[in-house]
Amino acid sequence: MEPITLYLTLLLAGFVLIGMEIFIPGGILGIFGAIAWIFAAVIGWRNFPDPWNMVAGLALLGVGILTFVVWIRYFPKSRVGKSLSLGESTANYKSHKDDGVAVGTVGEAVSTLRPAGIAKFDGKRLDVVADGEWIEAGQPVKVSSTSNGHVSVVKA
Q1: pLDDT tens digit sequence for 60-77
Q2: Distant-in-sequence, close-in-space partners of 131: CB < 8 Å, separation ≥ 6
Q3: Could you give the maximum distance between any two Cα atoms of the chain, in Å?
Q4: How much of the chain is in helix, strand and coil states, percent to nearest 5?
Q5: Which of 73, 96, 111, 127 has an alpha carbon within 20 to 30 A of 39's alpha carbon?
Q6: Are 91 and 104 in contact (CB under 8 A)?
Q7: Is 81 in contact with 75 (CB distance < 8 Å)?
Q8: φ and ψ at residue 12, rounded to 5 degrees
Q9: What distance lies between CA 42 and its chain's CA centroid?
């Protein structure tokens, strides 16, 4: 394959792989795209005549930096970016419902609380956090506080 054809193929492959990163996030395609650009820069440096090899390398570096800046600045505001990330629409979202357990309720630790674990209150299993000390399974516990689905317990 001719060097100029390989150079252009690697440039195009880099653009396509980095563009696919929008739809298949994870970083792998972007890394392969960057590697394709690096190989294109090396091929361009070795095969272009003297002032143009530097121009090609600097242009590729500039395009890479510009692509990164545009991606960071504008992608989160785009329709696709908004659909892939949490935004203002989730500001009122509550991930945990009220467990219906009151402060002072006595129950039993189902698992060892180190400090987090499971306790049973009125036949209902709840995720709880022990306040300050580990509590062995089977020990009686008392609810010391609740806040937004977070239940704290102490030894009863």
Answers
A1: 888 888 888 887 888 788
A2: 115, 144, 145, 152, 153, 154
A3: 82
A4: 50, 20, 30
A5: 73
A6: no
A7: yes
A8: -65, -45
A9: 33
Backbone region of residue 154 per phi and psi (left: phi > 0; alpha: psi in -120 to 50; beta: other values): beta
Hey, what amino acid is at 131? D
For helices 28-47 and 3-20, angle between their N-to-C axes, nearest 10 degrees:
160
Pick from 8-17, 61-70, 124-133: least confident: 61-70
31 CB-near residues (< 8 Å, 6+ apart): none
22-26, 88-92, 142-146, range with the lowest pLDDT: 88-92
Q: How confident is the model at residue 128 (pLDDT cuts 50, 70, 90)?
A: very high
User: Which pair of tokens denotes residue 145?
Assistant: 């506080």
> In the predicted model, what is the mean pLDDT of residues 85-91?
61
User: What's the residue count for the chain?
Assistant: 156
Alpha carbon distance 80, 59 (integer Å)? 28
Is 108:139 a contact under the CB 8 Å cutoff?
A: yes
